[in-house]
Design goal:
It is a single chain. This protein is α+β, with helices and mostly antiparallel strands and 104 residues long. Helix content is 42%, strand content 22%. Helix 1 runs antiparallel to helix 3. The longest helix has 27 residues, at 9-35.
Length: 104
Amino acid sequence: MLPPIGITPDRVNETRTVNSLKQIVMAEKMYKNKYGSYGTLHDLYRTDTIPEELILKVRDFFGYKITLTTTDDGFIAEACHIKKPEKRAKFKVGPDGEIMTINP
């Protein structure tokens, strides 16, 4: 399916990547409510809080790599373009759910 006129495939992939980060925020909230701390990507997969396919899809189809760093009181999920990190926006989100766009 083609994106609407005026919306580039790159913009569509960025939007899908941001939506995936929002899913991670929701998964982290669920994980913390159940286990008392934030989880790594492996923790989230292992407990079926998010499907592993989510991260693979973002990487393989949208061109972004998602990393997740946890601390005792929070987490940071980041999405960085794999092939053109110096030319494409990077996205970052923490427990507050506020997506930050870091433009190159």
